Amino acid sequence: MNLSLHDLHVLLVEPSHMQAQLIERMLAQLGVTRVARRDTGGAALAYMREVRPSVVISSLYLPDLPGTELVQQMRADAELESLPFVLISSETRPQMLEPVRQSGACSILPKPFSASQLALALQNTLELLNPEAVFAVEEVEHLRVLVVEDSLASRRHIRRLLEDMGVRHIIEAEHGRAAVQRLADTMVDLVLTDYNMPEMDGRALVEYIRTQSWQASVPILMLTSEHDEERLAAVEKAGVSAICDKPFEARSIRQIIAQALFA
Fold first, then answer.
1. What is the pTM of this model?
2. 3-class DSSP state for residue 223?
3. Residues ≥6 apart with Cβ < 8 Å to 105
4. Which SS3 state, helix, strand or coil, does residue 203 take?
5. Is the pLDDT of residue 137 over 60?
6. What's the half-sphere exposure (Cβ side, CA atoms, 13 Å) at 106?
7. pLDDT attached to residue 254
8. Is 137-262 a domain of CATH 3.40.50.2300?
9. Residue 202 in contact with residue 178, Cβ under 8 Å?
Protein backbone atom coordinates (compact mmCIF):
# COMPACT_ATOMS: atom_id res chain seq x y z
CA MET A 1 0.00 0.00 0.00
CA ASN A 2 1.37 3.42 -0.96
CA LEU A 3 2.09 5.88 1.82
CA SER A 4 0.46 9.31 1.92
CA LEU A 5 1.45 12.51 3.73
CA HIS A 6 -0.80 11.48 6.62
CA ASP A 7 1.21 8.25 7.03
CA LEU A 8 4.61 9.94 7.27
CA HIS A 9 6.55 9.77 10.53
CA VAL A 10 8.89 12.78 10.55
CA LEU A 11 11.97 13.18 12.72
CA LEU A 12 12.64 16.90 12.99
CA VAL A 13 16.18 17.79 14.06
CA GLU A 14 16.03 21.43 15.08
CA PRO A 15 17.69 23.11 18.12
CA SER A 16 15.46 26.21 18.03
CA HIS A 17 12.18 25.66 19.86
CA MET A 18 10.50 28.54 18.02
CA GLN A 19 11.67 27.29 14.60
CA ALA A 20 10.59 23.74 15.47
CA GLN A 21 7.09 24.93 16.41
CA LEU A 22 6.80 26.81 13.12
CA ILE A 23 7.81 23.74 11.10
CA GLU A 24 5.49 21.47 13.10
CA ARG A 25 2.56 23.82 12.35
CA MET A 26 3.39 23.75 8.65
CA LEU A 27 3.60 19.96 8.72
CA ALA A 28 0.24 19.74 10.49
CA GLN A 29 -1.34 21.96 7.84
CA LEU A 30 -0.10 19.49 5.23
CA GLY A 31 -1.61 16.57 7.14
CA VAL A 32 1.59 15.32 8.79
CA THR A 33 0.91 14.83 12.50
CA ARG A 34 3.46 12.16 13.50
CA VAL A 35 6.44 14.37 14.29
CA ALA A 36 9.23 13.61 16.74
CA ARG A 37 11.75 16.33 17.57
CA ARG A 38 15.37 16.11 18.65
CA ASP A 39 17.69 19.09 19.08
CA THR A 40 21.09 17.45 18.48
CA GLY A 41 22.53 15.16 15.85
CA GLY A 42 23.52 12.54 18.43
CA ALA A 43 20.02 12.38 19.88
CA ALA A 44 18.59 12.15 16.36
CA LEU A 45 20.83 9.21 15.45
CA ALA A 46 19.85 7.41 18.66
CA TYR A 47 16.16 7.95 17.87
CA MET A 48 16.54 6.71 14.29
CA ARG A 49 18.15 3.48 15.47
CA GLU A 50 15.39 2.85 18.01
CA VAL A 51 12.31 4.10 16.16
CA ARG A 52 12.79 4.27 12.40
CA PRO A 53 11.06 7.39 11.01
CA SER A 54 9.86 7.84 7.41
CA VAL A 55 12.02 10.91 6.80
CA VAL A 56 14.53 13.09 8.63
CA ILE A 57 14.24 16.87 8.33
CA SER A 58 17.28 18.59 9.79
CA SER A 59 18.70 22.05 10.24
CA LEU A 60 22.25 22.56 8.98
CA TYR A 61 23.61 23.97 12.22
CA LEU A 62 23.21 21.73 15.26
CA PRO A 63 24.91 22.03 18.68
CA ASP A 64 27.05 18.91 18.33
CA LEU A 65 27.55 18.40 14.58
CA PRO A 66 26.41 19.99 11.31
CA GLY A 67 23.53 18.51 9.33
CA THR A 68 26.03 17.59 6.60
CA GLU A 69 27.83 15.28 9.03
CA LEU A 70 24.53 13.91 10.33
CA VAL A 71 23.52 12.69 6.88
CA GLN A 72 27.03 11.33 6.27
CA GLN A 73 26.80 9.27 9.47
CA MET A 74 23.37 8.04 8.37
CA ARG A 75 24.72 6.97 4.97
CA ALA A 76 27.60 5.12 6.66
CA ASP A 77 25.17 3.07 8.80
CA ALA A 78 23.62 0.08 7.04
CA GLU A 79 20.39 0.48 9.04
CA LEU A 80 19.99 4.18 8.26
CA GLU A 81 21.58 4.66 4.82
CA SER A 82 18.30 4.51 2.89
CA LEU A 83 16.36 6.92 5.14
CA PRO A 84 15.13 9.96 3.17
CA PHE A 85 16.82 13.18 4.32
CA VAL A 86 15.80 16.83 3.89
CA LEU A 87 18.15 19.67 4.88
CA ILE A 88 16.96 23.11 6.00
CA SER A 89 19.57 25.81 5.55
CA SER A 90 20.13 29.47 4.76
CA GLU A 91 23.62 28.48 3.58
CA THR A 92 24.29 29.02 -0.13
CA ARG A 93 28.03 28.27 -0.40
CA PRO A 94 28.44 25.20 -2.64
CA GLN A 95 31.25 23.74 -0.54
CA MET A 96 28.94 23.66 2.51
CA LEU A 97 26.05 21.97 0.72
CA GLU A 98 28.01 19.61 -1.52
CA PRO A 99 28.13 16.74 1.06
CA VAL A 100 24.33 16.79 1.25
CA ARG A 101 23.89 16.92 -2.53
CA GLN A 102 26.23 13.93 -2.86
CA SER A 103 24.42 11.97 -0.12
CA GLY A 104 21.24 11.40 -2.08
CA ALA A 105 19.16 13.92 -0.12
CA CYS A 106 15.53 14.37 -1.16
CA SER A 107 15.67 18.15 -0.99
CA ILE A 108 17.51 21.16 0.38
CA LEU A 109 15.04 23.71 1.73
CA PRO A 110 16.10 27.37 1.98
CA LYS A 111 15.53 29.25 5.21
CA PRO A 112 12.92 30.67 5.39
CA PHE A 113 10.83 28.35 3.23
CA SER A 114 7.17 28.29 2.27
CA ALA A 115 4.54 25.62 2.86
CA SER A 116 4.59 24.82 -0.85
CA GLN A 117 8.36 24.23 -0.75
CA LEU A 118 7.94 21.93 2.25
CA ALA A 119 5.12 20.10 0.48
CA LEU A 120 7.36 19.53 -2.55
CA ALA A 121 10.14 18.14 -0.34
CA LEU A 122 7.67 15.74 1.27
CA GLN A 123 6.33 14.74 -2.14
CA ASN A 124 9.90 13.89 -3.17
CA THR A 125 10.10 11.75 -0.03
CA LEU A 126 6.90 9.90 -0.93
CA GLU A 127 8.24 9.22 -4.42
CA LEU A 128 11.24 7.50 -2.84
CA LEU A 129 9.06 5.54 -0.44
CA ASN A 130 6.50 4.64 -3.13
CA PRO A 131 8.56 3.64 -6.18
CA GLU A 132 6.65 3.94 -9.46
CA ALA A 133 6.53 1.05 -11.89
CA VAL A 134 7.86 3.08 -14.83
CA PHE A 135 8.87 0.05 -16.87
CA ALA A 136 7.49 -3.41 -17.37
CA VAL A 137 9.76 -6.07 -15.85
CA GLU A 138 10.65 -7.51 -19.24
CA GLU A 139 11.84 -4.05 -20.41
CA VAL A 140 14.49 -3.63 -17.70
CA GLU A 141 15.47 -7.05 -16.42
CA HIS A 142 18.26 -7.35 -19.02
CA LEU A 143 19.42 -3.72 -18.95
CA ARG A 144 23.03 -3.08 -17.93
CA VAL A 145 23.60 0.33 -16.32
CA LEU A 146 27.01 1.82 -15.52
CA VAL A 147 26.98 4.22 -12.55
CA VAL A 148 30.05 6.50 -12.42
CA GLU A 149 30.27 8.41 -9.14
CA ASP A 150 33.12 9.04 -6.68
CA SER A 151 30.76 9.38 -3.69
CA LEU A 152 29.90 5.96 -2.24
CA ALA A 153 26.75 7.35 -0.62
CA SER A 154 25.57 8.78 -3.93
CA ARG A 155 26.31 5.52 -5.75
CA ARG A 156 24.24 3.61 -3.20
CA HIS A 157 21.38 6.10 -3.56
CA ILE A 158 21.39 5.79 -7.35
CA ARG A 159 21.59 1.99 -7.08
CA ARG A 160 18.48 1.96 -4.85
CA LEU A 161 16.57 4.09 -7.35
CA LEU A 162 17.55 1.80 -10.21
CA GLU A 163 16.68 -1.33 -8.27
CA ASP A 164 13.28 0.17 -7.39
CA MET A 165 12.73 0.56 -11.15
CA GLY A 166 13.49 -3.12 -11.67
CA VAL A 167 17.08 -2.77 -12.92
CA ARG A 168 19.23 -5.63 -11.68
CA HIS A 169 22.46 -5.42 -13.71
CA ILE A 170 24.29 -2.41 -12.22
CA ILE A 171 28.02 -1.81 -12.70
CA GLU A 172 29.81 0.77 -10.57
CA ALA A 173 32.90 2.90 -11.22
CA GLU A 174 34.38 5.44 -8.82
CA HIS A 175 35.59 7.87 -11.51
CA GLY A 176 35.83 8.33 -15.26
CA ARG A 177 39.06 6.39 -15.73
CA ALA A 178 37.58 3.36 -14.00
CA ALA A 179 34.49 3.74 -16.20
CA VAL A 180 36.67 3.63 -19.32
CA GLN A 181 38.09 0.32 -18.12
CA ARG A 182 34.59 -1.08 -17.53
CA LEU A 183 33.42 0.07 -20.96
CA ALA A 184 36.38 -1.56 -22.70
CA ASP A 185 35.05 -5.07 -22.12
CA THR A 186 31.46 -4.71 -20.87
CA MET A 187 28.53 -3.63 -23.02
CA VAL A 188 26.08 -1.31 -21.25
CA ASP A 189 22.70 0.18 -22.16
CA LEU A 190 22.98 3.38 -20.11
CA VAL A 191 25.67 5.44 -18.35
CA LEU A 192 24.80 7.55 -15.30
CA THR A 193 27.71 9.79 -14.36
CA ASP A 194 28.65 12.58 -11.99
CA TYR A 195 30.53 15.66 -13.25
CA ASN A 196 33.14 16.42 -10.57
CA MET A 197 35.31 13.33 -10.03
CA PRO A 198 39.03 12.60 -9.57
CA GLU A 199 41.18 10.95 -12.23
CA MET A 200 38.74 11.79 -15.07
CA ASP A 201 35.71 14.05 -14.70
CA GLY A 202 32.29 13.68 -16.28
CA ARG A 203 32.96 15.92 -19.26
CA ALA A 204 36.12 14.03 -20.18
CA LEU A 205 34.24 10.75 -19.83
CA VAL A 206 31.45 11.92 -22.14
CA GLU A 207 34.02 13.09 -24.69
CA TYR A 208 35.84 9.76 -24.51
CA ILE A 209 32.68 7.72 -24.97
CA ARG A 210 31.47 9.79 -27.93
CA THR A 211 34.82 9.87 -29.74
CA GLN A 212 36.83 6.79 -28.72
CA SER A 213 34.60 4.11 -27.21
CA TRP A 214 33.17 1.25 -29.26
CA GLN A 215 29.91 2.13 -27.44
CA ALA A 216 29.80 5.71 -28.74
CA SER A 217 26.00 5.82 -29.06
CA VAL A 218 25.13 4.69 -25.53
CA PRO A 219 22.77 7.14 -23.71
CA ILE A 220 24.63 9.17 -21.06
CA LEU A 221 22.78 10.88 -18.21
CA MET A 222 24.73 13.29 -16.01
CA LEU A 223 23.65 13.72 -12.38
CA THR A 224 25.47 16.70 -10.95
CA SER A 225 25.52 19.57 -8.49
CA GLU A 226 27.64 21.60 -10.92
CA HIS A 227 26.03 24.95 -11.79
CA ASP A 228 28.74 26.62 -13.85
CA GLU A 229 26.95 27.34 -17.14
CA GLU A 230 30.11 27.21 -19.24
CA ARG A 231 31.06 23.79 -17.87
CA LEU A 232 27.55 22.43 -18.39
CA ALA A 233 27.45 23.85 -21.91
CA ALA A 234 30.73 22.05 -22.65
CA VAL A 235 29.19 18.79 -21.40
CA GLU A 236 26.16 19.27 -23.64
CA LYS A 237 28.45 19.98 -26.58
CA ALA A 238 30.41 16.81 -25.80
CA GLY A 239 27.24 14.79 -26.35
CA VAL A 240 25.56 14.10 -23.02
CA SER A 241 21.99 12.86 -23.47
CA ALA A 242 20.53 14.70 -20.44
CA ILE A 243 21.64 16.59 -17.32
CA CYS A 244 19.85 16.32 -13.97
CA ASP A 245 20.62 18.48 -10.91
CA LYS A 246 21.44 17.07 -7.48
CA PRO A 247 19.46 16.62 -5.35
CA PHE A 248 17.03 15.22 -7.89
CA GLU A 249 13.44 14.06 -7.68
CA ALA A 250 12.97 10.31 -7.94
CA ARG A 251 10.12 10.78 -10.43
CA SER A 252 12.22 13.07 -12.63
CA ILE A 253 15.15 10.71 -12.82
CA ARG A 254 12.88 7.79 -13.70
CA GLN A 255 11.23 9.79 -16.47
CA ILE A 256 14.57 10.98 -17.88
CA ILE A 257 15.90 7.42 -17.91
CA ALA A 258 12.73 6.22 -19.63
CA GLN A 259 13.09 8.90 -22.31
CA ALA A 260 16.80 8.15 -22.81
CA LEU A 261 16.21 4.43 -23.21
CA PHE A 262 12.85 4.13 -24.94
CA ALA A 263 12.08 7.45 -26.62
1. 0.70
2. strand
3. 71, 85, 86, 87, 247
4. helix
5. no
6. 27
7. 74
8. yes
9. no
